[in-house]
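Sequence, please.
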């Protein structure tokens, strides 16, 4: 599958073929998800960015998604993007066994999976708390987060 040409504001840190998961950097539940993903993604196939970061905001604009109130994770691969439960399932497909088995849950009816996802997402701060977004999980690991001007080597 061919990747679309990236606009200049994205090509400084995102390469065609990169897989990216955008998440709410202020959400404690999202931080837990990212910690799990980092442990399971031993080959570092998936790059991370918060929706609040300059990189996350640029990707959201490029995808035509709102930049001010994102209550969903976004997974981007090969110019395609997924939201909510589908984003989670697509990211799981990149991981090794046995974690990858969790992706089988994508066969749940989309309406049911997104219903559960939306219920948790709309109550995530109340249920799991909120942080200031400065201490990101895995931020000390080189190459895990998108950063403008620092392209990952292949």
């Amino acid at each position: 599958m061919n990747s679309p040409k990236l606009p200049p504001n994205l090509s400084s840190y995102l390469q065609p073929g990169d897989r990216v998961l955008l998440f709410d950097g202020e959400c404690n539940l999202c931080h837990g998800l990212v910690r799990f993903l980092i442990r399971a993604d031993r080959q570092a196939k998936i790059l991370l960015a918060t929706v609040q970061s300059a990189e996350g905001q640029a990707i959201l604009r490029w995808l035509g998604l709102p930049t001010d109130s994102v209550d969903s994770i976004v997974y981007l691969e090969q110019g395609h993007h997924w939201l909510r439960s589908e984003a989670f399932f697509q990211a799981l497909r990149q991981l090794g066994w046995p974690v990858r088995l969790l992706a089988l849950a994508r066969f749940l009816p989309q309406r049911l999976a997104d219903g559960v996802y939306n219920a948790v997402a709309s109550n995530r701060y109340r249920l799991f708390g909120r942080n200031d977004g400065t201490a990101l999980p895995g931020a000390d690991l080189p190459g895990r987060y998108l950063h403008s001007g620092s392209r990952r080597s292949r």
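The first strand starts at residue 19 and ends at 23.
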